[in-house]
Amino acid sequence: MRVFPIGVGTAFGRRFFNTNLIVQFDSGGFLLVDCGITAGRSLETIGMSVLDVRNLFVSHLHADHIGGIEELALKSKLLLGRKIDLYINQGLVDGLWESIRGGIEHTQLGRLRMDDYFNVFAHEEGFVLEGVEFSSRPTNHVNGMMSFDLGFGNLLFTGDTVFSRDYVVGRVNGFGTVIHDCSFNSVQKVHAHYKDLIENRHLFDRLYIIHYEDDVERYRQRMSSADISLCRQYIEIVVTPSWI
């Protein structure tokens, strides 16, 4: 099983595309983790297309995580006549449709619905895909907005979240590799600040950061000194299945 980001940047960054990942199974199939505004371009950069996507996980409803779903849904439906298998917390289902319906509800095929585009696998705490058990738990991103992480094998992707010691202590145990949301911007309060991650580095085994700003080079040495790695676009992250 391979994991690699197709984007590692913030919502409004220009250099690194939106933070979206691919989990590739031994069979060759894959799960796309979020599908932001830049997902189509990110995929094309590595010779892929949204038409290759058959499985999608959605962590929350910000545009850098769902803004590419309109293209994905329309092309899959109209060009291939195929539905996307959608893995999503049940609390996000209605909100996702409200977010994307304006661009895909009315088509030459008539008025379509969520289940015309997706096989919806709504879950409470996780799901199984290609024999792999995925767990998904709430994170604290924006007050009043539901957001979720994704864990599988020995890897945990936090998704978007502020830093919380309680969350790390309660959730990270058992995951040898953590891909953690990180920001170098002290103004915003909806992502984990890099100083919190450095200060609490002892709580993690292998720690990668993602969802960072365009000026990341200013902080690279500081993160490296704390033994914190930067996720890099299209660079594989090694995952050891927990069942081996």
Put the structure in a nutshell.
The chain is 24% helix and 26% strand. The chain has eight helices and 16 strands.
Strand pairing plus helix content: what structural class?
Answer: alpha/beta
Residue windows where pLDDT falls under 50 for at least 5 positions: none
Strand line-up of the largest beta sheet: 8-5-4-3-2-1-16
Q: Count the beta strands.
A: 16
Query: What CATH architecture do you see?
Result: 4-Layer Sandwich
**Percent of residues in helices:** 10-25%
CATH fold-level topology = Metallo-beta-lactamase, Chain A
CATH structural class? Alpha Beta
Apparent shape: globular
Mean pLDDT: 94
How far the N terminus sits from the C terminus, by CA atoms, comes to 12 Å
| CATH superfamily label | Ribonuclease Z/Hydroxyacylglutathione hydrolase-like
Radius of gyration: 17 Å
Number of domains: 1
Strand content: 25-35%
Largest sheet: 7 strands, mixed
Helical run tally: 8
Element order: H for helix, E for strand: EEEHEHHEHEEHEEEEEHEHEHEE
